[in-house]
User: Fold these one by one.
Assistant:
Number 1:
Amino acid sequence: MLSMHAIKVEKLDKKFGDFKALDGMDLVVRKGEVYGLLGPNGAGKTTAIKVLTGLLKKTSGDAEVLGVTIPNKDITQKIGYMPQETALYIGLTVHQNLEFFGKLFGMDKAKILERETELLKFIDLEKWRDELVANLSGGMKHRVSLACALIHEPEVLFLDEPTVGVDPELRVSFWNFFSKLKEKGITILITTHYMDEASHCDRVGFMRSGKLIAEGEPQAMLKEAGATSLEDAFLFFARRDRT
Amino acid sequence: MNIKRALAVSRRVFMDLKNDKRTLALIIIAPLFAMGIFGLAFSGQISGVNVIVVNDDMGMATPMGQVYLSEIVINNLDPDTLSITTMDDVASAVAEIENGNAYAVFYFPANFTNVTILAYNQMTEASTSVDIHIDMSNVNVAEAIMQAFNDAVQTTMQQRGLEMPVTIDRQAVYGQNASFMDFFVPGIMAFVVYILTTLLTLINFVGERTSGTLARLTATPLRESEIVAGYAMTFSIVGTLQALLLLTVGMLVFGVNVEGNVGLAFMVVALLAIVCQALGILLSSITHREAQAIQLIPFIIMPGFLLSGVFWPLEALPLWLRPFSYLVPPSYAIDACRSVMLRGWGLEMIWTDVVALIVFAAVFLVLAVLSLKRRG
């Protein structure tokens, strides 16, 4: 099915017992854009990503990825997911991790090797190919984690707080990675609570109490809020939402 | 179910085990350690038990000279089991038991030879006895002492031509010349695979849950059944290799004999490994951290230890406890392996055990897949 939307979410609810982690969330992410989901801890960003990647079951509402209603196992072939935790097999080498995830997506050996060479160059870890992940630094693990999410050339990439606990230098290089991925036409949905980073996104959406309270291009958001930083802008929209 | 993805999981688990030298060592050394320690400890004879002989026997004059039956009995006491010293009076000998220096005192009265021979020839109504003072606080040692004494008396009677009217003629249907290790190795093969497979899967899978890799797998085309199948492939192979290793060392070091088809025994072990890896995955679903998994270990080991029949025969359990052994999967594997390797039985004889294991495997595999499918 052809669609202009990479991700489309309508009135999405997710309850844990009585707690509403998502409360009537609406969201549209266009194909090829980098969309930043912003908000404080507990706003529902991670829950939204987990529902969209099939890790959690939605309670009600509609959610589509690339025009397919999720959860759907077939769509996993086209999505990449980088969880908050490093989520790698630390007893395996960098190569073995990439190979394993490649195989899960049905890639043959030659294709995996080709992608691996590309990706290791991309994340600048060529020399570490045969090192156990356990022996890598935290930042290196993050980069390997990103490579694992990209091994099968996904069309949509879900990045859950990819820059948490990452040093400033690596954060800058991560955003460089992301903009290169965007150039290749990959849609990226990224969550972060580092508001300053969001200026790299095409559009940002502010989340609060399980729903989107405002969205737009970063510059437009600043203008509307009359703020100089996205942090102030968030506070402005949060106040407006409360009243 | 996509076999390629299941194979990828299987290979991934293999590499995890292979890359981690400590786990690899555990897989190889733990079975041998278990066989060596348990095998030697349980097969050990009781020996060197301190006993004291007090002999007042006056003997009996016969045409062949003075005869002392007591001396003959004492000479027939097994010198490996008993370490014998002599003393002159019973009171001080018994004091040695009270001090913990000896386990038993054998007292032969003055008329021992005289009355025994007269009574045997029906020349007297009188009877005589050997007084045995014994420390019964250690049941096994006490039994060994009594056994040694009975044996010595019987041997003496035979030597003197004082034969019992009844003889017992034992004909082994199975296990003629079977040693303790012949009996023990088939059991420990299955037991070790039960413990190690369950623990390794449990630990490995708790790792998948805590590190976030399991969540990551959910966002790939990999299906829950393929995860379980992949683990099952790896651990059935690892289990079979462990059994092979145990049997090889058992044969080379302990001279273990095998009657039946070893391949059949390995098949049973592989089946048990599949049951146990599913159990490990299932158990991991009720734990959230490694620390909680460790708390489960006694609940895995103790029932297997006590109820599977590996060390004590099931016939030694109280009647009400015996049915519980049917709930412990290694019971079937141990029974099957012993029947195959000691009695030379084939599949047509052990099929009930095999069917029980298949049922366990089917139920646990389905439950393991369902436990993975459960989402928040």
Number 2:
Amino acid sequence: MPKLDLKTAGPFIALVAIFIIGVLVNDAFLSSGNLSNILARSSFIGIVAIGATFVITAGGIDLSVGSMAAFISGCMILLMNALMDSIDSMVVIIILAVIASLGIGAVAGLINGLLTTKAKIEAFIVTLGTMGIYRSLVTYMADGGTLSLNFTIGDIYSEVYYGVFLGLPYPVWVFIAVAVIGYVLLNMTAFGRHCFAVGSNESVARFSAIHVDRVKTATYMLQGVCVAIATIIYVPRLGSASGQTGILWELEAIAAVIIGGTVLKGGYGRIGGTVVGALILTLIGNILNLTDAVSNYLNGAVQGIIVIVAVYLQRGAWRRD
Amino acid sequence: MSEEEHNIVTLSVKNLHKSFGPVEVLHGLDITLRGGEVHAILGENGAGKSTLVKILSGFEPLSSGELLLAKGGGEAELLTEWDNETAERDGVVLIHQEFNLAEQLTVAENIFLGNEIKGRLFLNKKAMRRKAQGYLDILRSEIDPDAAVDRLAVSAKQMVEVAKAQAKNARVLILDEPTAVLTQQESQILFELIERFRQDGVAIVFISHKLEEIEQIADMITILRDGEMVGSYPASELSKDDMARLMVGRELSSLFPQMPALPNEAEVVLKVSDLLLPGNSKSSSFELRKGEVLGFSGLVGSGRTALMETVLGLRKAAKANRGTIEVRGERANFKQLSSARDMGIAYLTKDRKGSGLLLEKGLSFNFSLFSLHKISRLLIDTRSEAIAFEKAIETFDIRMKDKSIVAGNLSGGNQQKLLLAKILEAQPSIIIIDEPTRGIDIGTKSQIYHFIAQLIASGHSLILISSDITEIIGLSHRVAVMYHGELSGVLEGDELDEHEIMRYATGLKSKSQNNKLQQNESETSGISNAQA
């Protein structure tokens, strides 16, 4: 009989436990509206966190994702509004914006990657810098206020967030697709192995004929693309972007990754755990909304406790080995 | 009982068993360590030496059995609470194979780490410096107590460890392969030191793979094999041959296999010309022929590893400095190891733990890392990976408790075999191996030599970097010797002699690459012409 591995099963057990608490707290918790809302909301952080799983597994960190999301939102909105004059088809405009979004995400990731690998600056510092840059750029683009998407496009584009397929909102399907691709990429391809190796010991990776710089840069680009995908489904939700968009996403994404069992210092990562981590974070927020027992304002505190407890349990499980 | 006598302790284990999980690794050891004795522990990699010393020094709990400590002539006391702290309080100090120093702190700070001399409120730095200097003086060491440890050479770090043990007033001093990182001269200083500790009544536990050293300094020898006691013997009763035989459990017929002769007209498979290492004025050139073992000898730091790593693109060299590299007549300029690998070259690093294996990853993960390109299209073919791994375990005789362990839990010799399996899985035709047997027991050594002979017999070509001259002479067809970052000569035939190699390695002799005389020694010129 395979022994129960606390490291692997832990996050999942926690998810089930929190879910049960949700059921006990409020009858409305189990309504299909609420459940699909939870799933849709966790998609944003979840998709970003899947990218972060690659970065962290390969020994890096990306703090710029939240402001990158805000920046890409701003660019998409400006682009779509500008194209209104020259292109008649709203769908074409949206597709162009989506392509642009993915491109900006990839380039932003490339910049982070090259600065860490070629300029040899610590990832923490590079992405702290780009975090400030993107955040300030979007504030500048919005002139300190809010960028709003043209209503005509917004109506059509909103389908991407609110549309439903087989009972699940589109963002959830996107989340599932990104998670499955991420899982295959990390666990079943040479690239995934290389991420583990680079995060585990760069020197060994280099002596194993792995292109360390290329692998690291690729993880940042993947992260950028994931941020772009999350932004593509996020923009139609509000139809606007401002300096406040995507604030603290980086911390929530990193929290989801860590709760899921990925090791912050690199070398070990779990996509399945990250998905569970993202769901746990959203569930907590949702349950606090549904109960009076704990103030909703304490959401961040509860999430913080969960992160610390999760890591404590994982460490404990290691010691016993 | 005088104080002197009270200072002498006897530490013994009775019927000691140790298990990791369900696997028992030590099966009932009975060893007595007496003050004033040097007790050598001998055994192949994986025999259980390291586990034993970790238990003695309180870093690992024992699973069953007894630990007894007798002070002076007193009664032996059963040690029930034994951890690192209590062990050090009783004067049992372990000097790890990999040192345990805080790299950023100074020598003096390290010597008193956890043992600081305090004034009323703050640390008494002056007193610590002065006492540290005193300990270092006893060691006749010129290390500056204020130097940062990360600036020190390995041998100096070892001295700091010994000084630290003095500061802890060691009564049982355990040295786990202390000479593996020392030069012969430094080893001799260490031995004098051990002798002084011995006269002082300290019980010394000494682990080494070098049988000559054990013959030189040990009073008692305990031999372990696969976690079992072979026995404890007075050193005077054992010859080196006895030690090797008892350790391996069989006669070692020949350490070195018969090497296939090098055909006269063997084609040149690797040709390096005019490669200049940074900071040097003279370039190096050499050729490797098909079916040849080309030894690379030289003192530690003579640039052998740097030379190979530059050839392979693992170290950056200005383009002009790399000279020209030809692989089977084809020009190559490797910027990444993968391009060298794709031309059929593999490199076995000497830094097994730092650059060779991912210690916290599984065995099969490590095994396929260098040759993943062969088994992955879009996805990795895990089935052929598993088959190849099983085959490698068999071919290379990699022994482990359990296939699911991580590489760091393999013994040193088995790690080396795994590393060899890893680089050979890419099926290279040119293999560069750097110190393949350092820190490895004699049985595994012999196995590795036989692998090398098999590779040569099947048409591979090999460059062997080694600081062990017997190994170089025993295996190589020709020997290139490096001195101060440049090739001082390529020796063959009758020149393959330990003293001759040392002359080139120490700069007494040198052959010019361009058929010009570099050193004014008449005999050199003759050889140089013959070489051309």
